[in-house]
Specification:
binds ligand LNRAV4D5, 12 helices, IF_2B-like_C, 4-stranded mixed sheet, alpha/beta, Four Helix Bundle (Hemerythrin (Met), subunit A), Rossmann fold, NagB/RpiA_transferase-like
Length: 354
């Protein structure tokens, strides 16, 4: 589907990723040689997005095996790289299970990490297959007029491997000739919407408009949004959804304006061990300077730069995620189909969690 992937292996059997901190202005590839490189890439958001974090951690375990590092230490360090996206822990648990009893740790880790990547590609493609009818239905209702979709942060291919989660139904709608337009929340403070979603929608020729995070409610009040689709970093057994900070506010506005609010959810982002997302999902707090400074391309030098947007002495709070309660979620779009944001809805599609 896409001209590029977000993580790949090299001829000398190492791993390369795109430094997403530099997009959309610079295409910088970072080579991961050691598991500490993978850990740092996750921590510093060289790579980000729940599924890609999981894939990077999986290859981090491969790199640990390749370099002869202490695997227990590597698992422990990678588990601490970021707390909210459950894919990280899912991927590490999958690698640990696969390596248990393996004779050739390096080869086994290499193959399992590669399989995690391929599985995500197919999972995201299927999210598109199941999400497409939702867009189609609105298009038909609008007699072919443009379907306006609002999204928050980046849950596109750059948060995954190819298709992306929220972008998969959008890309498949465009491929089918359905007219769509995407309102892209810039998504302060790291601007994943402005930097990443706009970048990939541009590359895929998807009409879109960048908006400040606070504009979404106004657009919804004035009938300019037909549906919202967002990603998730962790969804609980009862359908509570952790996603980038600000998602909850969009869900409130959508609910108030009777606009469908969908969550694109790969099952690798399910945490069926917890119910109450507000009480049980760990919310990452990141460095306050991500709020105090903005990174962008200087009009003067044309180089990437960061500028202070508040007084030197002003402190900032920087919660990375919030939790949208299931009651505000219209439905979950998964690789096995669309279901209600509830335990009953999830168990219909994923009975193995009974
Ligand atoms: C399919 S990506 C899911 C999720 O990850 C993003 O967070 P971050 O950029 O901090 O890793 C965002 O919450 C996306 O919706």
């Amino acid at each position: 589907m896409s001209a590029f992937r977000t993580i790949w292996t090299t001829e000398d059997h190492y791993v390369e990723v795109i430094d997403q901190r530099k997009l959309p202005h610079e295409w910088v590839v970072e080579k991961l040689i050691s598991y500490k490189d993978a850990e740092r890439a996750i921590k510093e958001m060289v790579v980000r997005g729940a599924p890609l974090i999981g894939a990077t951690a999986a290859y981090g375990i491969y790199l640990a095996a390749k370099e002869g590092a202490d695997l227990n230490e590597a698992f422990a360090d990678l588990r601490l790289s970021r707390p909210t996206a459950v894919n990280l822990f899912w991927a590490l648990d999958r690698m640990k299970a696969k390596l248990a009893g393996a004779t050739d740790l390096v080869q086994t880790a290499w193959e399992e990490a590669a399989q995690i990547v391929e599985d995500d590609v197919e999972t995201c493609r299927m999210i598109g297959v199941h999400g497409l009818p939702l867009i189609e239905a609105i298009s038909k209702k609008k007699r072919g007029e443009t379907v306006h979709i609002l999204t928050h942060c980046n849950a596109g291919m750059l948060g995954c491997i190819e298709w992306g989660t929220i972008t998969s139904p959008i890309y498949q709608a465009v491929q089918k000739g359905i007219k769509v337009h995407v309102w892209v929340d810039e998504t302060r403070p790291r601007l994943q919407g402005a930097n990443l979603t706009c970048y990939e929608l541009t590359r895929h020729d998807v009409p879109h408009t960048l908006i400040v995070d606070n504009q979404g409610g106004h657009l919804m009040q004035h009938g300019m949004v037909d549906m919202c689709i967002v990603g998730t970093d962790r969804t609980t057994r009862q359908g509570d959804v952790a996603n980038k900070i600000g998602t909850y506010l969009k869900a409130l506005a959508a609910h108030d304006n009777h606009i469908p609010f969908y969550v694109a959810l790969p099952s690798t982002t399910l945490d069926m061990t917890i119910r109450d997302g507000l009480k049980e999902i760990p919310i990452e707090q990141r460095n306050q300077n991500e709020v105090r400074y903005v990174v962008g391309k200087s009009k003067i030098t044309g180089q990437l730069d960061e500028v202070l947007i508040c007084p030197e002495t002003t402190q900032a709070s920087n919660y990375g995620f919030d939790v949208t309660p299931a009651r505000l979620v219209t439905a979950l779009i998964t690789e096995r189909g669309v279901c209600n944001a509830s335990e009953e809805g999830l168990l219909k599609l994923f009975p193995e969690y009974n």
